[in-house]
Amino acid sequence: MMKSEIWDWLQNNYFSVTQPTLQNNSGIWPLILASQQGCCDVVNFLLEQQAAMDVLDRYGNNALWAACYAENSGCIDALIHAGIDINYQNSASGATALIYAASSGREKVVEQLLAAGADPKRQTHDDFTALDLAPTRKILKLLSQL
Which of 18, 46, 56, 120 has its CA 20 to 30 A from that of 126? Predict the structure, then answer.
C-alpha cells in the first residue's frame, strides 16, 4: 500500500496513482520531478515500482542530474544504488552530472559523485571536463587530485 504522502505527491503533480511510473499529461516523468524536488521517499517508491532510470527531461537530462540540481544526497544515493548511469552525458552539451555539479559549485555533490565512481575525465562536446569548469577552490582541489 502506498503512503498517503506519496499518493498526495503523485496526485498534486498530475501523475497516475495506479501507474505511478508513467509521465503525466505534460510529459514530465515522476522520477525526474521527485529527484529535482529532493523527494527521497517518492524516489525510493518509484524505484521500488521499477521506474525506468533512462528517462530524460525536456533538456535531455536524467534523474541523477535532477537530484544533483536539488543537492539531495539521499536521492543521489538511491539513484546510484539502483543502477542509474552515473556518467550519462546530456545529448545537447555532452555534460555529465559531475560536470554540471562542478560547474555550478555544488561541492558536496561533486564529492559524492566522485566517491560513487563518476568519471572526472568525461568531456562536454566542447572538450571541457569538470575540472575545466570548476568555480571553487574546493572543487578544483577535489578534481585535480585525480
Answer: 56
Instruction: Scan for cell 530524460, then name that residue.
Output: 56
Distance, CA of 16 to CA of 140 (rounded, Å): 43
C-alpha to C-alpha distance for 130 and 93, rounded to whole angstroms: 13
The DSSP letter of residue 58 is: T
- pLDDT class for 38, splitting at 50, 70, 90? very high
pLDDT at 145: 87
Residue 31, all three cell numbers: 522520477
Is residue 24 within 8 A of residue 14, CB to CB? The reply is: yes
The enclosing domain of 16 has a CATH number of 1.25.40.20
Q: CA nearest 2: which of 37, 40, 45, 39? A: 45
Taking the C-alpha atoms of residue 137 and residue 11, their distance in angstroms, rounded to an integer, is 43
The Cα 40–Cα 74 span in angstroms is 6
Residue 35 belongs to domain spanning: 1-84
